[in-house]
Amino acid sequence: MKKISITLMAIVCSFLLYSCTTDSVAEIDGLYNTQSTEGDDGDPPPPPPPPPPGANDE
Question: What is the pTM of this model?
Answer without folding.
Answer: 0.33
